[in-house]
Design brief:
- By secondary structure, the protein is of the alpha+beta class.
- It is 20% helix and 22% strand.
- It has a five-stranded antiparallel β-sheet, covered by helices on one side.
- A hairpin with a 7-residue loop joins β2 and β3.
- The structure holds guanosine-5'-monophosphate and zinc ion.
- The site of zinc ion has 6 residues, from α1.
Length: 114
């Protein structure tokens, strides 16, 4: 956890292009964007993935959903559409073990998921 890159970004120990922050979550531009809008929304509390969440996290998760909706509006993709996804584990190619939601938009995406 101490070595977690996203925990370091949240604490500003590693620079990032921050787009939003509140007491519960943090959002920043993906360093390797896959779409014109590609933001990562992360809880400040460290959890490796959805598998580490518990009942107590329900409010946090609802909050993150609302923040994602707000960011979609702020970033100008609410009208055109956007995709929200979180990768978990090997088959999904999760590369950073701190729960994060990709917010992708600004381009027509394909239906394919794999
Ligand atoms: P995953 O593959 O785990 O779902 O997504 C991890 C994402 O984090 C990738 O899209 C990758 O580009 C992004 N990423 C990895 N390291 C950094 C970093 O240091 N800064 C930023 N802004 N994004 C990062
Ligand atoms: Zn972390």
């Amino acid at each position: 956890m101490n070595n977690c890159i996203f925990c370091k970004i949240i604490k500003d120990e590693i620079p990032s292009a921050k787009v939003y922050e509140d007491e519960l979550c943090f959002a920043f531009k993906d360093i390797n964007p896959q779409a014109p809008v590609h933001v990562l929304v992360v809880p400040k509390k460290h959890a490796a993935s959805v598998l580490e969440l518990c009942e107590d996290d329900k409010e946090l998760l609802g909050h993150i959903q609302l923040v994602i909706g707000k960011l979609a509006n702020d970033l100008g993709v609410a009208e055109t559409g956007f995709r929200v996804m979180t990768n978990c584990g090997k088959d999904a190619c999760q590369s950073v073990a701190h729960l994060h939601y990709h917010l992708l938009g600004g381009v027509q995406m394909s239906e394919k998921m794999v």
